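queue> pop job 88
queue> type: inverse folding (structure -> sequence)
queue> payload:
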């Protein structure tokens, strides 16, 4: 369908990974705001996310807890 210029979502890495091949083949941008798998964003030319990766977030959380002696 030529009227589809982009797809917004899905909201999980697992669902997103399953449709990436279809979106890449159709050359339709897939814009997903929340997937956090480090394998998600670099998985295609038409794949975009604004979320940070789990690995980066966990490191920042650990630094915060350590530096502010929380817990």
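queue> result:
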């Amino acid at each position: 369908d030529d009227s589809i210029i982009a797809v917004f979502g899905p909201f999980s890495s697992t669902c997103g990974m399953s449709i990436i091949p279809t979106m890449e083949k159709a050359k339709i941008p897939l814009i997903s705001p929340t997937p956090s798998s480090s394998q998600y964003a670099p998985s295609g030319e038409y794949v975009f996310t604004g979320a940070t990766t789990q690995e980066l977030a966990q490191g920042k959380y650990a630094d915060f807890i350590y530096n502010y002696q929380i817990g």
